[in-house]
C-alpha cells in the first residue's frame, strides 16, 4: 500500500489508493475531503478550476461515509473519494451556471442521474468546476467566471470545454472529475493537462439533468489521473436510464476488467491516416509514434487506416453543433428562469428577451447561436445543415469499414500542446481546429479516450483511442497497456513531473 502519511502524498494519490487507505483505517473520507478543500483554498486563485465549492455538504457527506464504513457496511470501490463536477450537471440545492451569466444565480431543484449515481456510490461532491460558457469552446476562456489556467504552466489553457475538471485533477485539488464531451470537451483537456478522460459511447451515460448544448453529440464521461480510477468512475455513472430517451438499454461494457488487464497482444490497432501531417506539431507526433511503438512492443498489431470523411468532420460539426445550440438555447428567454433584464417593468416581451439574451450570453455563445440559426433558416437548411448530416453519415460508414480490419483506432488527441491564454481568442477558426482529432468520435457516436503520452517542451501530449459502439472496454484496455509501458520508462506517472504551483510546494519537494 502506498505511503499516504503526508498531505502531499494524500493529495497526489489515486482514488484507488485513497479508498484502500480508508478501508484499512489509515485515513478517513473526512480527512481526505478536508485536504482537497484546503488545497482548493490554497491554489485555486491561480488555477480557477472551481466556480462553486460545496465545503459544508462535502464534509457532511464524507462523515456519513466514514460512519457507514465504521459500521461494517459494504461500500463501493470509490466510496469516500472526492469528486469535482463540471458545472453542466444539475445538483439539487447548488447553483448550476454552465459558466454563463444567463444562469449565474440559478439553483437546481433536482440532481442529474450521473451525479446521483456518484452520490449513491458514496462519492463526495467537492463542488462545480469551470468550463467554456455552455460548453462551447476549446480553452475554458469563454467562461463568465474567468479563464481556467493549466497547472503545468499557468499562462496556458487547460483545454475546453471542461478545463476546470481536468485542471482540478492536475492541480491535485480532486482525484476524480466529471465532464461532458460534445466535440472533445473531456479528451482535449485531459490531453493538455496530462490526465485521463473518456467519452463513453453515445447513450452509454445518461444526459438527464445535464444542461443541453448539442443533444445529438453531448455525452457525460469520467476524468481521472489513472486509467483504473477513470474506469471505476465510468462503471459508476454508466448504464441505462429511463429518464433519458437516448440512453442505450444495454449492459455496461466491462471497463474495469479491461483497465485491470491491459493486455493488447493480438489487438489490431489502426493509425488514422487523416489525423496527422501538416498542422500537427513535431513533438506531438513524436510522442504519438513512441506510444504506438510501445503498444507494438507488447504484441499489438498496428496498421494504417484511411477514413476519408474525417477531413470534413470539423466543417460538418461546426454546422450541426451550432444548429443544435440555436435550438437548445432558445429556451433562455427571460420569461421562465435565468437572467432577466427589465429595469422598469414596462418593456414588451420581445424587448425583455433581447436585452436579457444580449446581457446573458457571451460572445462565443452568440456567435454559435447566430451560425446555427442561419444554417437552419429557410432556403439554407439543405445546403448547410442537411449537407453536414450527410457528412456525418459518411463518417459512420468510414468507421464501420475501419472496424472490419481494426479493433481500435488511434491518433493524437490534439494537434498541438496547450497554447497560451489569449493566443487564439480573436481567431475562432484556429480555436476550432483544436478539436480536429476528437470530433469524429462524437459524430460517429463511438467510445473514445485520451491518455498521457509524454511531454513536448515541458507540456503534456495526449494519445487518443477510439472503439466501436458499446466497446468502451477496448478504450481502457489500450489505455491501461499504454500507461503501464510508458510509466516503466518514466519511472512514475506523468503528473509526478508537473511543476509546483507555488514556492512552498517547491520547498516541500526538495
TrEMBL record:
Catalytic activity: L-glutamyl-tRNA(Gln) + L-glutamine + ATP + H2O = L-glutaminyl-tRNA(Gln) + L-glutamate + ADP + phosphate + H(+)
Top EC class, one word: ligase
Listed Pfam families: Amidase (PF01425)
E.C. number(s) listed in UniProt: 6.3.5.7
General function of this protein: Allows the formation of correctly charged Gln-tRNA(Gln) through the transamidation of misacylated Glu-tRNA(Gln) in organisms which lack glutaminyl-tRNA synthetase. The reaction takes place in the presence of glutamine and ATP through an activated gamma-phospho-Glu-tRNA(Gln).
Subunit note: Heterotrimer of A, B and C subunits.
Similarity comment: Belongs to the amidase family. GatA subfamily.
Highest taxon in the source lineage: Bacteria
HAMAP family cross-referenced by the UniProt entry: GatA
Swiss-Prot/TrEMBL keywords: ATP-binding, Ligase, Nucleotide-binding, Protein biosynthesis, Transferase
UniProt-recorded name of the protein: Glutamyl-tRNA(Gln) amidotransferase subunit A
One GO CC term on file: glutamyl-tRNA(Gln) amidotransferase complex
InterPro entries attached to this UniProt entry: Amidase (IPR000120), Amidase_CS (IPR020556), Amidase_dom (IPR023631), AS_sf (IPR036928), GatA (IPR004412)
Ranges where the Amidase domain occurs: 32-475
GO molecular function ontology, one term from the record: transferase activity
GO biological process terms held by the UniProt record: translation
Active site (record annotation): 86 (charge relay system), 161 (charge relay system), 185 (acyl-ester intermediate)
Amino acid at each position: 500500500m502506498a505511503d499516504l502519511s503526508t498531505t502531499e502524498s494524500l493529495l497526489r494519490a489515486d482514488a484507488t489508493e485513497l479508498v484502500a487507505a480508508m478501508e484499512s483505517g489509515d485515513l478517513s473520507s473526512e480527512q481526505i475531503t478536508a485536504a482537497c478543500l484546503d488545497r482548493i483554498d490554497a491554489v485555486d486563485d491561480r488555477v480557477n478550476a472551481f466556480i462553486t465549492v460545496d465545503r459544508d455538504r462535502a464534509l457532511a457527506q464524507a462523515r456519513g461515509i466514514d460512519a457507514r464504513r465504521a459500521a461494517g457496511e459494504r461500500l463501493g470501490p470509490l466510496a469516500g473519494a472526492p469528486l469535482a463536477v463540471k458545472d453542466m450537471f444539475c445538483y439539487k440545492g447548488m447553483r448550476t451556471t454552465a459558466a454563463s451569466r444567463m444562469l449565474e444565480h440559478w439553483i437546481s431543484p433536482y440532481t442529474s442521474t450521473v451525479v446521483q449515481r456518484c452520490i449513491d456510490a458514496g462519492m463526495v461532491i467537492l463542488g462545480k468546476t469551470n468550463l467554456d460558457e455552455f460548453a462551447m469552446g476549446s480553452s475554458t476562456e469563454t467562461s463568465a467566471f474567468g479563464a481556467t489556467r493549466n497547472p503545468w504552466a499557468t499562462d496556458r489553457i487547460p483545454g475546453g470545454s471542461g478545463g476546470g475538471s481536468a485542471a482540478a485533477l492536475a492541480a491535485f485539488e480532486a482525484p476524480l472529475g466529471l465532464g461532458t464531451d460534445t466535440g472533445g470537451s473531456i479528451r482535449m483537456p485531459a490531453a493538455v493537462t496530462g490526465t485521463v478522460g473518456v467519452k463513453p459511447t453515445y447513450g452509454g451515460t445518461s444526459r438527464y439533468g445535464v444542461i443541453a448544448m448539442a443533444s445529438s453529440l453531448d455525452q457525460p464521461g469520467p476524468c481521472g489521473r489513472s486509467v483504473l480510477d477513470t474506469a471505476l468512475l465510468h462503471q459508476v455513472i454508466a448504464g441505462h436510464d429511463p429518464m433519458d430517451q437516448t440512453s442505450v438499454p444495454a449492459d455496461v461494457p466491462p471497463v474495469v476488467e479491461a483497465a485491470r488487464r491491459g493486455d493488447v497482444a493480438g489487438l489490431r490497432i489502426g493509425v488514422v491516416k487523416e489525423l496527422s501531417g501538416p498542422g500537427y506539431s513535431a513533438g506531438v507526433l513524436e510522442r504519438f509514434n513512441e506510444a504506438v511503438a510501445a503498444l507494438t512492443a507488447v504484441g499489438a498489431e498496428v496498421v494504417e487506416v484511411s477514413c476519408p470523411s474525417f477531413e470534413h468532420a470539423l466543417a460538418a460539426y461546426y454546422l450541426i453543433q451550432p444548429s443544435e445550440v440555436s435550438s437548445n438555447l432558445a429556451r433562455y428567454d427571460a420569461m421562465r428562469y435565468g437572467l432577466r433584464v427589465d429595469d422598469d417593468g414596462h418593456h414588451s416581451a420581445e424587448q425583455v428577451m433581447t436585452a436579457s439574451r444580449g446581457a446573458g450570453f457571451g460572445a462565443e455563445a452568440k456567435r454559435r447561436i447566430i451560425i446555427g440559426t442561419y444554417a437552419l433558416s429557410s432556403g439554407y437548411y439543405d445546403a448547410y445543415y442537411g449537407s453536414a448530416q450527410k457528412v456525418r453519415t459518411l463518417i459512420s460508414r468510414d468507421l464501420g469499414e475501419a472496424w472490419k480490419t481494426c479493433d481500435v483506432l488511434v491518433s493524437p488527441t490534439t494537434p498541438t500542446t496547450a497554447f497560451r491564454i489569449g493566443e487564439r481568442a480573436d481567431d475562432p477558426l484556429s480555436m476550432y481546429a483544436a478539436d480536429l482529432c476528437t470530433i469524429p468520435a462524437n459524430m460517429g457516436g463511438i467510445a473514445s479516450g485520451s491518455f498521457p503520452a509524454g511531454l513536448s517542451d515541458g507540456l503534456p501530449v495526449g494519445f487518443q483511442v477510439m472503439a466501436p459502439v458499446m466497446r468502451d472496454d477496448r478504450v481502457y484496455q489500450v489505455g491501461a497497456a499504454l500507461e503501464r509501458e510508458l510509466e516503466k520508462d518514466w519511472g512514475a506517472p506523468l503528473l509526478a513531473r508537473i511543476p509546483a504551483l507555488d514556492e512552498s510546494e517547491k520547498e516541500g519537494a526538495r
